[in-house]
Amino acid sequence: MSEPPQHRLGELMEESNPPFEEVMSCVFGIENHETWTYLVLCDQPGSTIDELAATMERDRSTVNRSLSTLRDRGLARRDRRLLDGGGYVYQYTAIALPEAKALLHDALDTWTATVHDVIDEFDGQTR
């Protein structure tokens, strides 16, 4: 089982108007190239690792690691397609952008609630 993402929400507070890609990377605790992989998958659903590597001009192993992270975060799925000559290939598809946005909102709402609790529970005493 993979470990939970390490959110980088503090980084978002440093920018007054962060781009969507930065928000996604920080909230899901993923690297910018993994966010880019997600966005490419949105445009090219059902892509193989080789197809993504060619499109993104990246090494297969880098793309494979990005896809693994996206799958761990629930942002992409992998389907097996049987080949006519025998064997199979894995195809990857990103979850729909509205679903990803809902996950982003949920993560931020959870974080905000936690911060509000910290503020409300503070009794004025330092540690």
From TrEMBL:
According to the record, the signal peptide region is: none
| Any Pfam family the entry gives | TrmB
Domain of life the protein comes from: Archaea
Chain ranges of the Transcription regulator TrmB N-terminal domain: 25-81
Q: Read off the SUPFAM superfamilies from this record.
A: Winged helix' DNA-binding domain
Identify this protein by name.
TrmB family transcriptional regulator
Q: Which organism is it from?
A: Natrinema halophilum
